[in-house]
Amino acid sequence: MPLNISWVESANTPDTDFPLNNLPYGAFVSDAGEPHCGVAIGDMILDVTALEADGVLAVPEEEEVFFFGDWSEFMTLGPEIWTGFRDALTELLSEAYADPQGLTGYMVPQVGTQMLMPFTVSEFTDFYASKNHASNVGTMFRGPENALPPNWLSMPIGYNGRASSVVVSGTDVRRPWGQLKSPDAELPVFAPCKRFDIELEMGAIVGQPSEGPVTVAEADDMIFGYVLLNDWSARDIQAWEYQPLGPFQSKATATTISPWIVPKAALEEFRVDTPNRERPLLEHLTEPGPMLYDIALEVGMAPEGKSETVIARTNYREMYYSSAQQLAHHSTSGCPMRVGDLLGSGTISGPEKDQRGALLEITWGGKEPITLDTGETRSFIEDGDTLTLRGAAIGDGYRVGFGACVGTVLPALDDPYKR
Amino acid sequence: MPLNISWVESANTPDTDFPLNNLPYGAFVSDAGEPHCGVAIGDMILDVTALEADGVLAVPEEEEVFFFGDWSEFMTLGPEIWTGFRDALTELLSEAYADPQGLTGYMVPQVGTQMLMPFTVSEFTDFYASKNHASNVGTMFRGPENALPPNWLSMPIGYNGRASSVVVSGTDVRRPWGQLKSPDAELPVFAPCKRFDIELEMGAIVGQPSEGPVTVAEADDMIFGYVLLNDWSARDIQAWEYQPLGPFQSKATATTISPWIVPKAALEEFRVDTPNRERPLLEHLTEPGPMLYDIALEVGMAPEGKSETVIARTNYREMYYSSAQQLAHHSTSGCPMRVGDLLGSGTISGPEKDQRGALLEITWGGKEPITLDTGETRSFIEDGDTLTLRGAAIGDGYRVGFGACVGTVLPALDDPYKR
């Protein structure tokens, strides 16, 4: 598919994340200070809430779908509406549109506009589905013989995370306190986390509900779109707490998502297969077609006031399980899935050291610190560091991107109980 | 505190769960088929939504608090409103009230009335905080040397569950399918669960939000009330999936709560201390006073069409950690807590075999089946079995109860993917 030309000229440059082929969904603070729904095009945001209010572009037979500045209501309307609305947006923004001047009043520059959570997270589930990541972490936590748990090749291992802690890109993240126990200590202490980390992930957003188990094909149909996702992780809290029931407070400080939800439709042409199965999957988890996407990903790290170093480059196609498989597995027990459920892919790591999606892996548990371009070294995140995830599917002369997924780590409070 | 006498005579009998001292909150289907908020008194329900609509009893300066038949909006108003409203209800229903005839039109019999979820569950967290239970399960899963994980005496171990699967008492529960791997098999199969179980728990409902870490005293102030909670568990699915990230689909089929939320205020006089600490707790988890409650609990099991056998009797005071401690721990990382968060205590087991809150423990993993009064034996739940939790704090001549927390297990679907 070639670049689709828009009358918004900044959308036609090869380096924008937001050509007409993309049209991702976000939420922003309007001039009047209200949350509005918007669509990114080049370096602008098209104000969808204002378009609906003025009757320029509305979902047929629906009112106030975008009134609250949240895409959840739109998601509930289902795939036919998603397609129809995207087609209408494409027409409005295409080069051939007759009245571009009529739309300029609905355009807001991205620069200087505050972004908001684009949807209401119902529940957040995080998976562990990149084989390189699972093998690396397993080796560190349990030794090379037990690196991959016995169930790993049979199901996408996941755990329920905390929806209340999901925040949009640009939100500062406060270093947490927690129980830490060093290997040589007999008892834990309550202290600020010393091993604060990122996890480079993709997030799939469930846009349609289910009651009973769904097939992988049905699960794929339920997915509305994808975001970049950084699951901030307190590795020292995690090591002490995670047995036997899994990570809990180590993952509950914050999870940052990109400001833009890329619709599944914009990613269709970038579909790729999951890798060959090392153990045949049970039938209910087999895929009817390619369910991963070729999305180039990178992580940048910038100490306070200094320039950024890219510390990892990988690709979403490195996953062993797709989001559709994860959603199918999630439903096997009859677990009701709801509009707004967010499924983190799990940390995405390639086979090489500089393709790993977490500092835990890059620095091998802190034993092999990295040196940034500024000359500083890092084992884990230090106060003031800004971490940025970027991702895009690369087309012929254009890219379908997510915008930056950014967070700066603030120092821990001196006394977290002081009011 | 003596029995508080009501003009509703059925509330003054010693065997009702709902004397005037209780006044628990529920939701029910009105004659017009709408969800209404109600308060249990004796064998009746006082229709709070209708009282508000008619201006007989309203929260001062608020409108439509009960309009949607859900107590979540009331919870957001905070402890002062909770107290004021409870006082007003107590006055309306007390023996001294001047116009009882005026209220009879707002009374609905409990018998024959369909109950609904009394609040919107924001997120569900389940803990593992009874020492007898953790020791029993740990012994079965990991051997007696590793029964209690090293962290267990330092923090209330918990994991995030699935809010979408929480249902109200009376909802049938469909036996799930899942991945099962028998110890002697090399690979798993996808099949109906063979080891379906209950977990006898109490649930604490968070009624006020928090942003940063909260103390145990602050956590206690945030709790709105308590329910009985049955966390249905698929033990065979759990055994295969739970390493390394904890239970997932094994706990996602359903969690049943009692129809009535007993306000914290109704339980005040039944407060008891947690047991002596076997390892001193870190300061942020120490309790400023008694945070458990003396609540007698029991589990009944009835095969289809047969009478019930009580298979376990225990008490909420058997917990090692209180809900206030669990909530405080939950907030340590800065995890935002929200109105409507539901915290399961974890299975409550006493030291004796007939005091255990799960069949897994009662039958020791199925190796020691129990015999019911009907002569049948059970290792785990069979299709058609009805499981009922009951609980009450026992006062002098009255009981403060929760109503029955009931679920009947339906057979697994022949083909869960057939539509």
Structural key phrases:
homodimer; 419 residues; alpha+beta; SH3 type barrels; Fumarylacetoacetate hydrolase, domain 2; eight-stranded mixed beta sheet; 9 helices; 27 strands
Number of domains of chain A: 2
* Terminus-to-terminus distance of chain A: 56 Å
Judged by helices, strands and strand pairing, the structural class of chain A is alpha+beta
Low-pLDDT segments of chain A: none
Count of distinct strands of chain A: 27
The assembly state of the depicted protein chains is homodimer
CATH T-level fold name of the largest domain in chain A: Fumarylacetoacetate hydrolase, domain 2
Output the CATH class name of the largest domain in chain A.
Alpha Beta
**If classified by CATH, what would the architecture of the largest domain in chain A be?**
Alpha-Beta Complex
* Helix count, DSSP H or I runs of 4 or more residues of chain A: 9
Q: What is the average of the pLDDT values of chain A?
A: 97
- Specify which chain pair forms the largest interface: A-B, 66 and 66 residues
Q: Which band does the percent of strand residues of chain A land in? A: 25-35%
Walk me through the structure.
- The first copy, chain A, has nine helices and 27 strands.
- The first copy, chain A, has 419 residues and is an alpha+beta fold.
- In chain A, helix 5 packs across helix 8 (323-330).
- Chain A has helices at 48-53, 72-76, 79-93, 131-142, 216-222, 235-241, 264-267, 323-330, 359-362, and strands spanning 25-29, 35-41, 44-47, 107-109, 115-116, 124-127, 158-160, 166-168, 173-174, 177-180, 189-192, 196-197, 200-206, 223-231, 233-234, 255-257, 262-263, 271-272, 292-293, 296-302, 309-315, 342-344, 370-371, 377-378, 386-394, 399-401, 405-410.
- In chain A, strands 6, 7, 8, 13, 14, 16, 17 and 22 form an eight-stranded mixed β-sheet that branches. In chain A, strands 9, 20, 21, 25, 26 and 27 form a six-stranded mixed β-sheet that branches.
- Chain A has two domains: 9-116, Fumarylacetoacetase, N-terminal domain (SH3 type barrels); 124-410, Fumarylacetoacetate hydrolase, domain 2 (Alpha-Beta Complex).
- Chains A and B meet through helix 4, strand 7, strand 10 and helix 6 of A and helix 5, strand 7, strand 10 and helix 7 of B.
